[in-house]
Amino acid sequence: MLEYLWLVPTIPLIGFLILILTQGKLSEWPAGIVGAGSIGLSFLIAVLAGLEFAASGATSYTQELWTWMSVGGFNIGFTLYLDGVSLVMMYVITGVGFLIHVYATGYMHDDPSFARFFSYMNLFVAAMLILVLGDNLLLLFMGWEGVGLCSYLLIGFWYTDSYNGYCARKAFVITRVGDASMALGLFLLYANLGTLNIQEAMGLAQQNWVSGGGVATAVTLLLLGGAVGKSAQLPLQTWLPDAMAGPTPISALIHAATMVTAGVYLIARTHVLYELAPSVQYLVGVIGAITLLMAGFTALTQSDIKKVLAFSTMSQIGYMFLALGVGAYSSAIFHLMTHAFFKALLFLTAGSIILAMHHEQNIFKMGGLRKDLPWSHWLFLIGTVALVALPFTAGFYSKEEILASALAHHDGGFLLWLFGVAGAFMTGLYSFRLYFLVFWGDKTHDGHEVKGLHLQGPLVLLAVLSLIGGYFTIPVADVFPPLEEHHPSLFYMAIMMGLPMLGVLCAYLVFVKKAINVKALAGSGLGAWVHNFWRTQWGMDWLYDQLFAKPYTALANWNRRDFIDSFYNGTARLALILHGLISDTQTGQLRWYAITLASGLLLLVTIGVLL
Amino acid sequence: MPAISMQAIPVEHGLLLAAVLFTLGLLGVLTRRNMVFVLMSLEIMLNAVALAFITGGARWANADGQIMFIMIISLAAAEVAVGLGLVLRLFHQFKTLDLDILSKMKG
Fold first, then answer.
1. Domain that includes residue A159, residue range
2. Which residue of A246, A427, A540, B22 could cross-link A250, Cys pair, CB 3.0 to 4.6 Å?
3. Is residue A556 part of a domain?
């Protein structure tokens, strides 16, 4: 089946074409079958291809489809490249993607644009698969832009509400900043190495670049720019919470499980370059560490269920960046996978809750939903414990690996580790705050569980994956340098295992036992200021508003009468004035003509005589 | 033709008379509002020019001046024929020959 690898991205693309060429007029049944079925088929082929790949024992498989472009010495092939990392990514995208598609057939039921929704979803999956299967950076970049486009289309899916359009534009523009940086990085890489093929470029870089050299630093910094934009890390993270304006399955698929982890994939893919630029690699870790803690604090103050999850996604991707920063690439990919399981589960369960509450997303208007929504309750709890990384859940094994690697990292690792464990405490606190606020406490509104195999089925599967996902081994030994076995001392282990539980305990005391009056604390002077500071993403939105949006609009206002236009308008106006002057001489008075004729003649004769 | 009699009138006098006639004609064109008088003034100007040619031809004893005179006269005749025809049409059309009123053609 390995030779059918090309079908994996092609089938979703065909699904997209069918749905879009029928102009979104397919009714729900056929649209759902094409939409979800294409991803299911793609997953099936991916599994068969993966099994054959594993059986062949090769480290990689290359499938050259055709030459994309060939200009002089610049040859870009449309070539798929499968190795351990792309295999894991392919499984996550098609597998989790399939479950989310199935769920979406229930969630989007009765939406007038049902077929349009699935066409965008299929296009997204196709683009994401090209991103992870591309054997050169240009193909990867095409997929990268494709997923960006789909993200834009799907955030603004309910476009009749202008706020959703605003959110979509914001996400698009901010990620575009990162993408521009990434494109520059690719140009620089090509100018230096003369190839965009990933494997060739890595080999050439290892031979030709000096460690810590200027070129390596510049290229990795520019690529990092692209990665932080896509993965919503500091300083380009402000778009992710707004991206929650899209339908909930989108948040699960694009803004939790797959697209936002593309930055992690990019850095893991080009890890050879990052090893040649140790300072940038450490910067990756620092960015991850700061983002994970910042997002944790912000998640603690949100009132929208989806935004809490959005900030927790940001925080978990921060962990992945931290892992990349300390060279634990396989841990980063492992956490990417487990995170895809439990975050998709959390988002989809949140979607069920939102459905049950008739599109209410404010967690303060929920509460006591344990009894009304038993399914959602247990599924959400499983997702939450995996997110908090309580022992024996999927999240525990991956996060544990990351923190152990950080601790063992020789220079600066301990500092990153401190951020990581502080973030683990915050994760426990904000996740269970969300859980307790939604499911415990006094009941304020009735909820009615929306049931159906296509709604609960995927959730149960994801819940199982969230519990056992930690026991999977990912086949990346051939791709990344081997990870040394770290066995932190019992003291550190206790901290790493204890802090999340301490966070949960704090959440229990504060939000169930009401040991502290949070409202009063957040309402008084300093408390209110801190609360507001955290809630507004540490003022980042405000800062960008002041730094970029305000000066830009001021400049635009100042130049409202276009500077360049005024030159052309001025020319036109001058011609009009001159025309008016000459036109005024045409009075129709014959005697006036005669006198001008005579005086002109007189003038000429006088001049002739005088000269 | 005895040359003496031509010498009796100095060329300056002829030219001066022509200039005076021309100026009078021009003033007539500029000040008169009745179109018939304007045409008459134009005739005076043409005759002034013709006189200047005659004077020049006499001064240099050259026939070219007289040829030009004949040409100007025939031109003036033709001009009057066309001009008077237009005057008649205009009067039919507008019941007036006042140039200041007949000023519809303007830019």
1. 2-516
2. A246
3. no
Two tokens, residue B77: 């005749």
pLDDT band at B81 (very low <50, low <70, confident <90, very high): very high
- So what's the ipTM on this one? 0.79
Domain shared by A441 and A588, yes or no: no
On whether any CB of chain B is under 8 Å from the CB of A581, the answer is: no
- Can you list the pairs that A588-594 forms with residues at least 24 positions away whose Cβ atoms lie under 8 Å? A588/B103, A588/B104, A588/B105, A588/B106, A589/B99, A589/B100, A589/B103, A589/B106, A590/B38, A590/B99, A590/B102, A590/B103, A591/B29, A591/B30, A591/B31, A591/B33, A591/B99, A591/B100, A594/B29, A594/B30
Does the residue A354 lie in any domain? yes
pLDDT digits (tens, 9 = 90+) for A351-407: 888 888 877 788 777 777 777 788 888 888 888 988 888 888 888 888 888 888 888
Q: What is the pTM of this model?
A: 0.77
- Dist. CA A16–CA A6, nearest whole Å: 16
Cα–Cα distance for residue pair A171/A150, rounded to 1 Å: 11
Q: Do A594 and B29 touch (CB under 8 A)?
A: yes
Beta bridge partners of A66: A78
Examine residue A170 and state whether it is found in any structural domain, yes or no: yes
Total domains in the fold of chain A: 2
Instruction: Note whether A463 and A382 are within 8 A (CB).
Output: yes
* Chain B contact present for A589, CB below 8 A: yes
Residues A353 and A452 placed together within one structural domain of the fold: yes
Q: What value does the mean pLDDT take over residues A201-209?
A: 85
Mutate: best of B35, B44, B99, partner A, most A CBs <10 A: B99
Given this model, what pLDDT does residue A146 score? Answer: 92
Determine how many CB atoms are found less than 10 A away from the CB of residue A274. Answer: 24
In this complex, the residue of B26, B31, B103 whose CB is nearest that of residue A589 is: B103
